[in-house]
Write a structure and sequence with these properties.
By secondary structure, the chain is an alpha/beta fold. It has two domains: 188 residues, 3-Layer(aba) Sandwich (Rossmann fold); 176 residues, Glycogen Phosphorylase B (Rossmann fold, 3-Layer(aba) Sandwich). The protein has 16 helices and 13 strands. The protein has a seven-stranded parallel sheet with strand order 3-2-1-4-5-6-7, sandwiched between helices.
Length: 378
């Protein structure tokens, strides 16, 4: 690998786009590659591996803004970002650009394609995102997280490969932690996590459902629940009145530990959440976000549910009565939870980062010389 060449990662926005970029960065660095991140202004605050590599900020925008003015402003920001990326890429001399979807990655992927730099794009969801739909025809390779990925055109399928969705190292470390099968009269740990798009409805419905549980089950519960700041005290008071042990926070820094300790998880079905549950092997009740673009969370949830690792409840059916019925049934028959945990783990893809790195190297010819597995075989 030339000392002056590198691999550029184009990512930004939500954790669903950033977490797999971070996992790939760790893998590529371990193989001896030099990396650079091109992102938008939100990337200025990234920590971890992405915060330590060469980082460049460009303009980006979304075409889903409100009204004609909002869409036009987004378009102009994208155009400005493309010009910035076109000026930047020749200086970086990348052998490859890897885009992770989301509008912050679009200007860099467009500029790279116009300059003839091989682009590998990664799709985290079971529905091809709008940016990746725009880029699919220009990409040298398309990395998929799900074998069944909607909106991928037939003409682009020959360049697609299922690599899986890379997850954080802290999550992978918990894969070998055995599922804590519930024991008779033992504690039952419930993890409720939904991010900003799930915490509000969970803060309303889950406590009401817990109040409807059989008393014997309720007395055994310990609940770790993510809540919005404005809901914390109300939810805490509800659990206290029910005599339920709980730990509530707006954010859990130790979420890998809490996933590993959970007997059951209640969550949205974003790409990272589904990948992490499968990687660790924990059963879940998934409530897809009703307004997710192209309903991709329902498709994500379907993949895990059809594999036997989860149960899906539509948001309109996510009522206290329905949730209480599900919880009574599942917590009273722990063998269902044990079987679902095993099913989730079976479809987990702990080698997703390595597979994605292999694809990037194969497409670009960018082979490192420090820890690449083919060196050992040579």
């Amino acid at each position: 690998m030339s000392a002056t060449s590198c691999i550029v990662l184009a990512a930004g926005g939500t954790g669903g786009h950033v977490f797999p970029a971070e996992a790939l960065a760790n893998e590529l660095l371990a193989r001896g590659h030099r990396l650079a991140l091109i992102t938008d202004k939100r990337g200025a605050d990234y920590g971890g591996t992405l915060g330590r590599i060469d980082r460049h900020l460009i303009r980006a925008g979304t075409l889903s803004g409100r009204g004609v003015g909002g869409k036009m402003n987004g378009f102009l920001n994208i155009v400005a970002g493309v010009f910035q990326a076109r000026a930047l890429l020749p200086r970086l001399r990348p052998q490859a650009v890897v885009g992770f979807g989301g509008y912050p990655s679009l200007p860099t992927m467009l500029a790279a394609a116009r300059l003839g730099t091989p682009v590998t794009m990664h799709e985290q969801n079971a529905v091809l995102g709008r940016v990746n739909c725009l880029m699919a025809g220009r990409a040298a390779a398309i990395a998929l997280s799900f074998a069944r990925t909607e909106k991928l055109a037939d003409r682009d399928r020959p360049r697609a490969q299922v690599t899986g969705n890379p997850v954080r190292a802290a999550i992978l470390e918990k894969r070998e932690t055995a599922y804590p099968a519930p024991v008779e009269e033992g504690e039952l740990r419930l993890l409720v996590t939904g991010g900003s798009q799930g915490a509000a409805i969970f803060s309303k419905v889950v406590p009401e459902a817990i109040a409807r549980l059989d008393a014997g089950l309720r007395d055994r519960l310990r609940i770790d629940q993510q809540c919005r700041q404005e809901d914390l005290e109300r939810v805490r008071a509800a659990y206290f009145a029910l005599g339920v042990k709980s730990d509530l926070a707006t954010f859990f820094a130790d979420i890998p530990n809490r996933i590993a300790a959970a007997h059951l998880v209640i969550a949205r079905s974003g790409a990272s959440t589904v990948a992490e549950l499968a990687a660790v092997g924990r059963p879940a009740l998934l409530v897809p976000y009703l307004f997710a673009t192209d309903d991709h969370q329902t498709a994500n949830a379907r993949a895990l549910s059809e594999a036997g690792g989860a149960w899906t409840i539509g948001q309109r059916e996510f009522t206290a009565e329905n949730l209480a019925a599900r919880l009574n049934a599942l917590l009273s028959t722990p063998h269902y939870l044990v079987e679902a945990a095993a099913a989730a783990r079976r479809i987990g893809q702990p080698n997703a980062a390595a597979r994605l790195a292999d694809l990037v190297e194969r497409v670009s010819g960018a082979n490192g010389h420090h820890s690449h597995p083919t060196d050992a075989a040579a």
